[in-house]
Amino acid sequence: MARKIRVAAAIVVFVLGLVALYLYHSITSLESAHVSGDVHIVFGLGGNVGILRTAKGAVVVDTMTFPIQARGIRELATELGGGPARAIVNTHYHSDHTHGNPAWPVGIRVVSTERTQAYLNLFDSEFWQGDAAGTVPNDTFEQTHEMRIGDKTIRSYYMGRGHTDGDLVVLFVEDRVLHAGDLFFHRFYPNIDLEAGGSVRDWSATLEKVLELEFDHVIPGHGPVASREDLAGFARFMKELAQTVGQAAAKGLTLEQTLETVDLKEDEGYSPMAIPLIMNLDRDFVVKRAWEEATGVVKPVALPSE
To answer: What is the pLDDT of residue 274?
Structure first.
């Protein structure tokens, strides 16, 4: 009996070791690709990272989920970006785009919207303690922001509500590349953070403003590198989602009835995206969020300054 227990324990330890090895590999695996000009993208477990090469060092947009990942991103940024990072831009407050910040030196320039900084303090304050406090956004803005680093111009814009009500987009001006953050999930159903001011209803109008900018290539928050037309297609889907579900809510349909009857066409080729132990981003999820906004079941959390 004792021998059987030892064998079973050994098997459990072995399996747990394999799981730990798999998780470590998943977390630390990074893949980079050239986008255009001096811009590269890094894929991994979390939001896509943009790296701009300048004559005076790298600019990094978003930093993924774990500091152990971000240490690898920091090395890639130095290699691909012409030297150590001069600045970080956080497109919004979610951990899969910000929690890698502490891999960089305390005091590095970190750009975000004022609302993103406020949401970090409201929803995620426990993380931003100790050394991490030195990499929280320290250069914030309301509408537009511009940096000139080396030979490159980096413009950040707040265009309106969508994924949250604090998301920015980044334009690498000379390279005509846009980093859209989570305002654009390419070929995936998006997360819609109503609690942080996100809006299905306003999302397409926000993207219409983004499409007025001068760019040829798009780095989405999640998914492969995309084109201007891909972004326009996503805007059409968000508009269809808002209109279709809004009509169902206006008729007084319940969530269950809406899920059963809603007919969407602009999401052809979209795939679900699972966030383990948190949520499953699929068609039912986005319909549910659109219905919750349209009926007022879920409302944004008020920021302390409001």
So the answer is: 85
Q: What is the C-alpha to C-alpha distance for residues 61 and 155, in angstroms, rounded to an integer? A: 12
The torsion angle over the Cα atoms of residues 210, 215, 217 and 222, rounded to 10 degrees, is -20
Q: Are 199 and 246 in contact (CB under 8 A)?
A: no
Q: Find the Cα–Cα–Cα–Cα dihedral 230, 236, 237, 243, rounded to 10°.
A: 170
| Residue length of the chain | 306
Q: How far apart are CA 128 and CA 218, in angstroms?
A: 30
Q: What is the pLDDT at residue 67? A: 87
> Does residue 52 contact residue 59 with C-beta atoms inside 8 Å?
yes
| Element spanning 6, H or E | helix 2-28
Whether 86 contacts 149, CB under 8 Å: yes
Work out whether strand 87-89 and strand 59-61 pair parallel, antiparallel, or are unpaired: parallel
Rounded Cα distance between 223 and 245, Å, is: 25
How many other CB atoms sit within 10 Å of the CB of residue 169?
A: 28
On whether the CB atoms of residues 287 and 270 are closer than 8 A, the answer is no
Sorted by where each begins, the domain ranges of the chain are 30-227
Joined together, the tokens standing for residue 124 give 């995620």
What gap in Å lies between CA 107 and CA 133, rounded to an integer?
Answer: 9
- The segments of the chain whose pLDDT lies below 50 read 4, 6-25
CA distance 159 to 196: 16
CATH class of the domain defined by 30-227: alpha beta
How confident is the model at residue 2, as a pLDDT? 58
pTM for this prediction: 0.91
Distance of CA 198 to the CA centre of its chain: 13
Give the per-residue SS3 of 39-82: EEEEECCCCCEEEECCCCCCEEECCCCCHHHHHHHHHHHHHHCC
Strands (E), 67-176: 87-89, 109-113, 139-141, 144-149, 152-157, 169-172
**CA 158 to CA 177: how far, in whole Å?**
17
pLDDT at 259: 98
